[in-house]
Amino acid sequence: MLSTKMIKKAIIFGITGQDGSYLAEFLIKKKYQVHGIKRRTSTPNTSRIDHIFDSVNFKNKNLVLHHGDLSDPGSLYRIINEVNPDEIYNLAAQSHVKISFQIPEYTSDVNALGPLRLLEIIRHYKKKKIKFYQASSSEMFGKSKPPQNENTLFQPRSVYAISKVFAYHSVIHYREAYNLHACNGILFNHESPRRGVNFVTKKIVQGLTRIKQGKQKNLILGNLYSRRDWGHAKDYVESMWKILQQKNPDDFVVATRTSHSVKDFINICAKKLGIKLLWKNKGLKEVGIDKSNDKIIIRIDKKYFRETEVDDLIGDFSKAKKLLKWQPKYSFNKLVDDMIEKEKYE
């Protein structure tokens, strides 16, 4: 058994989310003691980590949960001082782009000022030098033409993206001004069976699976022609850890260098489920028809369109491949298979 002094401690903000849960698993396998930060909610929101954390009896010496919030500096200061971590991973955010149009001030407070609050605490921390990872986003590139890399101009198209650009530059500023070991991971879209139901990939997989099972009649979606570089969250959390293990802090794009449209995702998912789709009409009148019974199962609704769209994201991860020795293990097809397999038993 490792002595307490030899065990690395990591704090994960956003541990109850998709990435946080996979990162917790990954770090525990690396023999870390993981401290997860969760917001206080009236109903439990630990479903993604319940398999590694007994939320009833609070049993797991390698995983400890704390209540905190990026909008509450006092809780951040208290937790960091209590834990005395070696590494901090900030994965917490108001992470839904469309919702950021509806709650822009809250999104900015959490996504932009939250990381700034953490950096300020780390800057003045005296016990040790803490390594800091900030989850940046491909949405920051916005209108910039693909493929996008670490040198591509940011042209954000939402408050979500704008807030992420603020956090990104805050990390660089604190790294250069105060010699912090602070890094950005510019992660392109990544999905998994643990993806939230208000994200389009999960919505598609869940909807089509339920339609196949006779539990749902149709699926209502927005822009079918947005293209994204989709990877698997399991792959991407490994890159987070690798980024912090570098001797010199730096920023990295993490992606697959391939892109698919939302319509591609639908077609691939439908084919794997044995649904033969026929597409008719264009624009808001476009529909997807189940050829086995001629019923419309996919419709388009304007309310699911963004006010300003990001058309195409493709990440060039050459730098991560060269310096981190990282590349994705999951193919796009395997990702979809993984998501469908989980949904079948929900």
Main traits of this protein?
346 residues, alpha/beta, Rossmann fold, four-stranded mixed beta sheet, 36% helix, globular
Q: How would you describe this protein?
A:
This protein is of the alpha/beta class. The strands form 4 sheets. It has a 7-stranded parallel sheet with strand order 3-2-1-4-5-6-11, with helices on both faces. A 4-stranded mixed sheet has the order 8-15-14-13. It has helices at 18-29, 73-83, 97-100, 104-123, 159-178, 200-212, 233-244, 262-272, 318-324, 332-344, and strands at residues 9-13, 33-38, 63-67, 87-90, 131-137, 181-187, 190-191, 219-221, 227-228, 231-232, 251-254, 260-261, 277-280, 287-290, 295-300. 36% of the residues lie in helices and 18% in strands. Helix 5 links the parallel strand 5 and strand 6. It has a domain at 4-193 and 229-259 and 310-330: 3-Layer(aba) Sandwich (Rossmann fold), CATH 3.40.50.720. It is globular.
Distance between the termini: 38 Å
Mean pLDDT: 93
Rg, rounded, reads: 21 Å
The CATH class of the domain at 4-193 and 229-259 and 310-330 = Alpha Beta
CATH topology name of the domain at 4-193 and 229-259 and 310-330: Rossmann fold
| Beta-strand content | 15-25%
CATH superfamily of the domain at 4-193 and 229-259 and 310-330: NAD(P)-binding Rossmann-like Domain
Q: Structural class from helices and strands?
A: alpha/beta
| Number of helical regions | 10
Can you list the strand order of the major beta sheet?
A: 3-2-1-4-5-6-11
Number of strands: 15
Q: Could you list the spans in which at least 5 consecutive residues all have pLDDT below 50?
A: none
Looking at the structure, what is the overall shape? globular
